[in-house]
From TrEMBL:
Residues 7-211 form the NAD(P)-binding domain. Belongs to the avfA family. Coiled coil: none annotated. SUPFAM superfamilies: NAD(P)-binding Rossmann-fold domains. It comes from the Eukaryota. GO terms for molecular function: oxidoreductase activity, acting on the CH-NH group of donors, NAD or NADP as acceptor. This is NAD(P)-binding domain-containing protein. InterPro entries: NAD(P)-bd_dom, NAD(P)-bd_dom_sf, Polyketide_Oxido-like.
Length: 226
């Protein structure tokens, strides 16, 4: 397998990259990054890692990165541009549109996109803790939440052409106990999930989904067991 990972220098991208290389030890990982110097040394020096520097609006570099790819994982988010200073023009959603156009141009169907419970799903039910988080983030970071919601909307329009999964991640724990990183997949208010997730556990679940393909055209929330 040849995986293209966006956001590979972020808080979720790094554990995803490491988990992929652990599980698929003989496969290739392509990291599409803005700045090569931010790639951790263990990944930058790994024999199966290819690093491509480029912006998310550079269609030529996106096309180069997509060559020979079997699946795409995108861990893109509004980190670093917070509160009232976040742009209003939904830049992450726009980036996903360009990524999906490039995927279709290269015949790549599988997309796993990381987002948050701010993206709603018809399977969701009432959950006080998660509704509180939704309202809090919508109040503190309205433009960022607008962008996150737009990501869910643009990806869901591609059901005929892409095998997508929207992985909605709850708040991350510190992962101080590697033996306590289990996560489950479910929907708001189903009694299985809560408001806290594990980066390590989420990375393991997402990489397993590459082969399992249990959540195509679905939007599960990943969290620690309730």
């Amino acid at each position: 397998m040849r995986l293209l990972l966006f956001g590979g220098t972020g808080s979720m991208g790094i554990p995803l990259a490491r988990e992929y290389l652990w599980v698929y030890s003989s496969s290739t990982l392509v990291l599409y990054v803005r700045n090569r110097s931010k790639v951790p040394q263990d990944l930058a020096e790994h024999r199966n890692v290819i690093i491509i520097e480029g912006e998310l609006d550079d269609m030529d570099m996106l096309s180069k990165a997509m060559e020979g790819v079997d699946a795409v994982i995108a861990a893109l988010g509004p980190t670093g541009r917070k509160g009232p200073f976040y742009p209003r023009d939904t830049p992450i959603a726009a980036a996903y549109i360009r990524i999906m156009v490039t995927m279709k141009g290269h015949g790549v169907r599988r997309l796993i996109a990381l987002t948050t419970p701010s993206v709603r799903d018809p399977e969701d039910q009432f959950s006080l803790s998660l509704i509180f988080l939704r309202k809090m983030f919508a109040t503190l970071c309205p433009n960022a939440v607008k962008d996150i919601v737009a990501v869910g909307r643009v990806i869901r329009t591609q059901r005929e052409e892409l095998d997508w999964t929207l992985m909605r991640l709850a708040l991350h724990s510190s992962d101080t106990d590697p033996e306590n990183c289990e996560v489950v997949a479910g929907y708001m208010g189903d009694g299985k999930i809560n408001a806290v997730s594990s980066r390590i556990g989420a990375a393991q679940f997402i990489i397993q989904e590459l082969d399992r393909r249990e959540w195509i055209w679905k939007s599960p929330i990943l969290s620690k067991p309730s």
